[in-house]
Design brief:
Rossmann fold, alpha+beta, 17 strands
Length: 350
C-alpha cells in the first residue's frame, strides 16, 4: 500500500509568521514521518512558495530560506510543481501549520479546494467566519451561546465616541482586532487615553478595518480542544492562570507570568458544561477537523465564549495538543487522526 502524500505548509505573510515556524518545528519532530511521503512547503513573508529540503532546526530558527535548502514551486491540480527541478509532486492532503492571515482565514483552504487537494481543518466558510470575531459574535449570539457584550468599530464607517460606548458597556474593556490571533493588537482598557492608543494598534493588526470593544470578563480563561467532522469529541479542558490583565503574546509563547493547568481546576459539572459549550460553538460555526474553543469562567461560575481558533498552535507548549494528550491522545497520534479526518471530507472533485 502506497504512503499518503502529505504536504506540510508553514511560514506565511501574517503577523504570526514566527509562531508558525515554531509550530512547524514541533509538528515535524512529532509526526510519524515513516507513515507519509512528505513534502515540506514554505511560504516566505512576501508570499512566495518554496519546497523545503533542509533541517527542521533551520525552520525553528527562521534560517530555512537558504539557497541549498529551497526550490521555487507553484500550486497545480492535485499537487505542486518544482520549478527548479521541473517535476510534478502529487499531494493527497495538506496539513496547514499556519496561523492568521492567509492561513486560517479560508484563503489557503480555498486554494486547496481549487487544486482538488484534501486539507486538515475547517473549510473555507467556517475558517473565514471563525477568523472574523464580529461574525463569530453574531452567529453565536443568534444560537444562544453566551458571549461578552461588544461593539464593533469599522474604519470606513462613523465610529461611536468613548462616552457612547461606555453607555452601552461598562469599563474595563478588551480592545482587539477582528481578524488576528496570538494576542497581537489586544489591549486591556480602563480609560479614554488607553482606548485611543489601543484602537490605533488593533486597527494596525487587523488589516480589514474592523476591531472589537468587548466587556472585560471578571473571571479566568479556560479552553477546550474539539475534534471531528460528523462525530465531534473533546479533549480535556485547560485553565490559564495569569498575572497580566489578559493572556498576552509573551504569556502564550514564553509562559511569562502565566501558568496553564490541564486539566482545569473546575468542579465536574462545570468541566462538563465547558465541554458542552465548546461543542455547541464548534457546531454553530460549522467547524470540521479541529478547533480550540476559548472561554471564560465568570465570578458567578458561568461560562462565556471568547473565540474559536481553527488552526491552534502546535508548539511544545501549545494548549491544543496538551489538552488532547491529557485526554489520552499523544501528539503523534493526534496528527494521524487529524489527517484521517481530512481524508474523510469531500473536497471539490477529489
Amino acid at each position: 500500500m502506497s504512503k499518503l502524500k502529505l504536504g506540510v505548509v508553514f511560514g506565511g505573510q501574517s503577523s504570526e509568521y514566527s509562531v508558525s515556524l515554531h509550530s512547524a518545528g514541533s509538528f515535524l519532530h512529532q509526526i510519524h514521518a515513516e507513515q507519509y511521503d512528505m513534502t515540506w512547503i514554505a511560504i516566505d513573508k512576501t508570499g512566495h512558495f518554496f519546497i523545503y529540503h533542509g533541517p527542521i532546526e533551520a525552520i525553528e530558527h527562521d534560517e530555512w530560506k537558504q539557497e541549498q535548502y529551497v526550490h521555487r514551486c507553484a500550486w497545480v491540480h492535485k499537487g505542486v510543481y518544482d520549478l527548479d527541478e521541473q517535476i510534478f509532486i502529487p499531494l493527497d492532503v495538506i496539513f496547514p501549520v499556519l496561523h492568521g492571515k492567509n492561513g486560517e482565514d479560508g484563503a489557503l483552504q480555498g486554494m486547496c479546494e481549487m487544486m482538488n487537494i484534501h486539507y486538515v481543518g475547517c473549510d473555507i466558510l467556517s475558517s473565514a467566519m471563525c477568523m472574523d470575531k464580529e461574525i463569530m459574535h453574531i452567529l453565536c449570539d443568534e444560537a444562544g451561546i453566551p458571549c461578552a457584550d461588544y461593539v464593533c468599530l469599522k474604519k470606513r464607517e462613523p465610529q461611536p465616541t468613548f462616552a457612547e460606548i461606555e453607555e452601552k458597556i461598562a469599563l474595563p474593556w478588551i480592545v482587539k482586532p477582528c481578524n488576528a490571533g496570538s494576542s497581537y493588537g489586544v489591549h486591556f482598557v480602563e480609560n479614554e487615553e488607553e482606548f485611543d492608543k489601543a484602537c490605533e494598534d488593533a486597527f494596525f493588526y487587523d488589516g480589514r478595518g474592523k476591531i472589537l470593544v468587548e466587556k472585560a470578563i471578571d473571571g479566568f480563561e479556560i479552553g477546550c480542544a474539539v475534534m471531528g467532522n460528523d462525530h465531534i469529541e473533546t479533549g480535556s479542558v485547560d485553565e490559564i492562570e495569569i498575572e497580566a490583565a489578559f493572556f498576552d503574546f509573551e504569556g502564550k509563547y514564553a509562559m511569562k507570568g502565566a501558568e496553564i493547568h490541564c486539566p482545569a481546576r473546575l468542579e465536574p459539572n462545570l468541566f462538563e458544561a465547558a465541554q458542552m459549550l465548546a461543542k455547541d460553538a464548534y457546531r454553530t460555526m460549522g467547524c470540521t477537523g479541529l478547533a480550540r474553543v476559548d472561554m471564560f469562567v465568570t465570578a458567578e461560575n458561568e461560562i462565556v465564549l471568547n473565540e474559536l481558533n481553527t488552526i491552534p498552535g502546535f508548539t511544545a507548549t501549545s494548549r491544543y495538543p496538551s489538552m488532547m494528550a491529557t485526554a489520552g491522545l499523544s501528539f503523534s497520534d493526534l496528527i494521524d487522526r487529524l489527517i484521517g479526518l481530512a481524508m474523510e471530507r469531500q473536497v471539490s472533485a477529489c
